[in-house]
Amino acid sequence: MDEISRSGQITRENLNQIQRGGPAIAMKMDRLRKQARLLEQKVGKALQKGSNVQEHIIGCEYEDIRCPNGCNQRLPKHLIEQHLLQSCPRRLVECEYCKAKIPSVELEDHYEKCELFPVDCRYECGAMKIRGLLKDHYEFECPKVVVARPYSFASVNFKDTKDEVLDHLPMESRETLRNAAKCSSELGIKSTEQSRKFENETKRDGILEQMVSGQAEELQAEKRRTEEFRDGVNSLKRNLDELKRSEQLPRGNLHQLQMGSSHAPSPQYASAPSDSQNNKRIEKLENQVALQDNQIAELNLKLQLLEATSYDGNMIWKIDNFEKKRQDEISGKSPSLYSPPFYTSRFGYKMRARIYLNGEGKGKGTHISLFLVVMKGEYDALLKWPFPCKTTLKLLAQDGNAHITEEFCPDTNSSSFRRPSPEMNIASGAPFFANQQRVMNGSYNKDNCIFVQVIVDTSILENSMHFP
After folding, report:
1. For the segment 175-194, what is each residue's pLDDT rounded down to a tens digit?
2. What single string gives the DSSP state of each residue in 432-452?
3. pLDDT in tens, 205-247
């Protein structure tokens, strides 16, 4: 090739050499192209595999995570729930004496100061008393406590046990002292129980205040988001109106532009969008507006549900158009009605009421049937199952008369009160809750409206979660 370049001429010998080397060069180029394509495919697969791996890692059940109780153990994600329930040293267990919830690792220390823990009398009188009443026992009951004899002013520092001291008293004085000691012990027990009840009520009031405050902030945030959505929709509608106005181009000029002409188009219409482009933009904006309207409707519905949701196990449900809804059930249009969901606490059990205005089962046609439905909640993994709470169902009288009331305790063997695996368990309650004639002719149906109340006794649920 150097010789060719220097001479500027291609000889026959040079041409033969190029022709002999041409196929080899072409084959080499083909190989290089194939290698490049294979490399490209491998890189693409590697990138796709890397993306899939990253997605898998995010939701992998075998990823090690730290125990949320703060015990500093790291376990695979799928073992965390079992760890929290069974082996975590920081899991909450119940003191068998005072029923307080204590971290498992601190239970022995708690026994050392638990006011309801049974303790032997240190004077070895054979009695065993709860720690909170030991002081009263020593002062009023224990016969082995050393005390001064009555009338000790007549002698010098003369002391003896209570048994020996009583021997020096008349019989009436002995009985008086024993009765006083007994009354004092009973008053001490009642005082301790009242103190615990007052502390529990104070804690519950504080929790409810926090819940109400948090709920109010959440509602304000939802309202702000709704206003932002509305502003966005109004802006989109203004843009849509402007586009529609801009679409009103002179049809004659547009026709002239579409037909074409031997002259160059005027600058006024050279950059104007076509009808099809405008229609596409308008259609896109209309879809966005419709989407925003749907989102606003969903947010408004969510706000209404949040405002009506109860978090203390007490729900009052207003059912209007009573007679029409009852007739709809009779005709088969609507078999039953569901109340809005309510909760025993902010992170507690989720429930709703289900009512058959024309009755269900054996009560059909004669009674109103009312049931409780345990629903699948976000915090079920942290709660105790089966559902343990006594429930009271009421149809409220609207003129001061007696309410219609039914109470029941959950059957722990019934699937209605186990942890829900579908969205809702089978309803359980009172098929003969209220006679229809009594409801329609009595004080329970006023202005074609009835009020149903469901009260779940949450006193058993104090500190019932496995961890805070």
Report:
1. 665 666 566 666 666 666 67
2. EEEEHHHHHHSSS-BTTEEEE
3. 666 566 666 666 777 777 777 777 777 767 776 776 776 666 5
Tokens coding 217: 């902030």
**Cα angle vertex 320, ends 318, 325, to 5°?**
120
Q: Are 444 and 434 in contact (CB under 8 A)?
A: yes
Residue in the structure block whose two tokens are 């409810």: 208
Which phi and psi angles does 457 have, rounded to 5°? Answer: -75, 105
**For residue 342, is it within any domain?**
yes
pTM for this model (two decimals) = 0.41
State the pLDDT at residue 161: 64
Do residues 338 and 395 both lie within one domain? yes
**Does 237 share its domain with 321?**
no
Residues 15 and 55 in one domain: yes
CB 391 within 8 A of CB 406: no
* CB-based contact 376:434 (threshold 8 Å): no
Residue 64 has pLDDT above 70, yes or no: yes
Question: What is the number of domains present in the chain?
Answer: 3
Q: What one-character DSSP code corresponds to residue 103? A: E
Structural domain that includes position 55: 2-59
Do you find a cis peptide bond into 386, omega within 30 degrees of 0? yes
pLDDT, residue 78, reads 80
Claim to verify: residue 443 and residue 341 sit in the same structural domain? yes
